[in-house]
Amino acid sequence: MNSSIADLRQNYTLGGLAKADVDANPIKQFQIWFQQALDAELLEPNAMTLATATADGKPTARIVLLKGVSDNGFVFYTNYQSQKGKQLIANPYGALVFLWKELERQVRIEGKVEQLSIQESDTYFYSRPRASQLGALASAQSQVIASRELLDQKLVDLQTQYQNDDTIPRPEYWGGFRVIPNRIEFWQGRPSRLHDRLVYNLQDDSSWEITRLAP
Q1: Among 190, 193, 197, 212, the one annotated catalytic
Q2: Topology, domain 10-125+172-213
Q3: Is 193 known to be catalytic?
Q4: Which residue among 28, 79, 177, 203 has the highest number of C-beta atoms inside a 10 angstrom radius?
């Protein structure tokens, strides 16, 4: 098995990445690449790895879904009492990784994290399907539960409780986070593992400096 894993390799040949070809603003460059991922009809191009750490620096990572991007940062939603929610509140820094393997591309984002306003979280919560709203109420995310049956029964109970209500209240423990980037790296696969890596670093005057890294 180990020798088989070691033999796995892919030669990347789809394209290159030059400083002359990218936007001076990394958010705009991300939006260009994201649109190309959408146009390529990739499966869940908004799926991203979110890395967080405890206050004493122990890291964890998981996949979450991007739900918005602007000059203000990258937005996702979760249960604030989940493992990632607690870690981000205690240590408000995070990292994101997008992998679009069909395009031989990767984007890495690092920065400070802030909670969204109540209004922003409300707006997104009430745009979700009713079943997803109920799911947020039913799940004490990251907490130990005795069985799947108890979770399913809680959902049934909530469906009954709110069956005559047009609006399901957003729980206070559920809402959004925004990753405010200070570093964004764009990676394009190239042959012989000599990949292209362009990194944007935020400067004191709020401009971005672009540098090339060795692969």
Answers
A1: 193
A2: Pnp Oxidase; Chain A (2.30.110)
A3: yes
A4: 177
